[in-house]
Amino acid sequence: MKEVNSYVLKVASRCNLNCSYCYMYNLGDTTYLKQPKFMSLHTITALSVRLKAYCDATGVDYIHIIFHGGEPLLLSQDYFIDCIEILKSTSSDIKFSFSVQTNGVTINKEWYDLFKANNVKVGISLDGPKKHHDEFRLFHNGKGSYDEVAQAIRIGNGNGLAGILMVINTNIPTREFYQEIKELNVGKLNLLFPDGHYDRLPNGFDGLKFGDDNYTPYADWLIELFLIWKSDRLRPIIRLFETLIEMVAGIDGIGNQGFGRTKNGVVVIETDGGIEVTDSLRACYEGITRNGINVHTSNIEDLFKDDIFEVYYHAHDMVCEQCLNCPVYDFCGGGFLGNRFANHNGFNNPTIYCRDMIRLISFIQNDFLQSLPLDAINSLKGVQKLSYADVIEDISKPFLVKIDDDVKQKLISFKQPVLI
Ligand code: SF4
Question: How many domains does the chain have?
Fold first, then answer.
């Protein structure tokens, strides 16, 4: 039985922003239009009954709930109090933790107080300095949302703001970017690679250069940022860097959707109660995540029979042949599943960030090794200096490890369906 601890509740299917890169609204899937605008308390109750049954059957005793959207703060403060009460009282033997991911434009001290009182960690999305944030994160009238979000971060510091989430934008000079997070006094930050795949490359890639062995714009940007970050004694936590350092240091169990070899244990609950795989896969094509499984009619475990969930859960094991033969596979894990998609062969590809992964991982591994005394390096079994060029050469040779044919066919089976 799969162990799934994290549940992303899409409590609102609409948003007060209209970010240009958003997978919910602007990257190929319009099925949100058929969803109720908000998740009802009736659906929350049905979910909590399903969670209790799932935990009773599996022995899972810890569940993390992430209130998400659309924009969750379109709902009332009472709604969140009721949700937490329903979940905790229906499933009193489960230990719950809660967080909320908001675009930050309406959060104020009163909201922070409410979340603090209910042990809900607050995450805010920001895309860098005003000029760059306002290019993408817009209100529906076209106005940028930076001023509101920066104000929300300032209020949140010391009042329950747990961290900032940013989508990497390589157009922002790294010094300017770092100065911004210092000025806003950000204590914890995570960086996300933009959604995208082989048939819809993110803006940070020049389509003419994409695929060249020495073209690694995301890694170049991240390495520059890493060096600035590392030289700052009062640096904030940057989760992406710390994850990579922990992995190369050999700490067990480190990884997430985008890196490493751990299982992907996140389930999404839609506003109508639909139980689905992570919704950022919707950037692949219309309806790819839809499956007819719903908390009102189905058990949580029914999702585990869904093919796309199976591939997502095992995404770092179910990889293409190139990844199986790659020297940095254990750290990269083939990258996030959605970034491996191509219309003609589904997920049977390395991530579009493959070259960037090799450059970034080899840099961080070498940097880490350089910081250690020789006897410590010798005790790190199997971790050695890596050359970017050597890794590229290795994955260009005939592959020694062969992909299991069933895995290959399963990955390919998600190719873009031909519409008749
Ligand atoms: S770096 Fe490229 S080839 Fe290596 S595991 Fe990652 S995606 Fe696969």
Answer: 2
